[in-house]
Write a structure and sequence with these properties.
Length: about 170
């Protein structure tokens, strides 16, 4: 029993063992790297396209607040206007969503390379057991992750507040 403990292992895993773990979809992951890349892609994309996004959002808002005679007396005109506004909003948000999705996919690839494992996406009833999920959330590791997430949120929120309060007069 002591031979199987992770604390007792002194040698690194064999090539076959690493290959088996990879086949099962067990590769290194980093939530922090993914969160960083997604935040960087979203923030960088908004910053890079701020002029275009700002102009399109302004036009979208202006068009959405216009109320013509047709919209007042025709159901079809209201639905057509709503459909147009919705599609324009999706076009406005699509580049940012695309950048963040690419960043979310790139993070695991940067660490473990490209991997598609049917075993990892297979259905397993034990993974949807609510009691196991509650135990995982209430565990010390879950509480530690919660504290880390709160501290990260406070840090990022404080940084954003500081930047806005310092440069508020320069922002439109």
């Amino acid at each position: 029993m002591a031979e199987e403990s992770d604390l007792e292992k002194t040698e690194s895993a064999s090539a076959r063992r690493l290959e088996q773990a990879r086949e099962e979809g067990q590769v290194p992951q980093s939530r922090e790297l993914m969160a960083f890349l997604v935040l960087l892609a979203g923030g960088g994309g908004l910053w890079a396209m701020s002029g275009w996004v700002g102009h399109r959002a302004q036009m979208l808002l202006r068009h959405g607040l216009e109320f013509g005679h047709d919209a007042a007396f025709s159901d079809q005109a209201i639905f057509t206007s709503l459909a147009t506004l919705t599609s324009d909003a999706f076009v406005l948000a699509a580049p940012i969503f695309l950048m963040t999705m690419v960043a979310a996919v790139a993070a695991p690839i940067m660490i473990g390379g490209w991997l598609f494992s049917p075993k990892a996406i297979g259905f397993d009833l034990s993974r949807i057991n609510p009691l196991t999920g509650i135990k995982r959330v209430v565990s010390m590791q879950g509480v530690g992750e919660l504290v880390k997430a709160i501290l990260k949120s406070v840090l990022i929120g404080g940084l954003v507040f500081w930047m806005i309060s310092r440069n508020g007069d320069a922002m439109p």
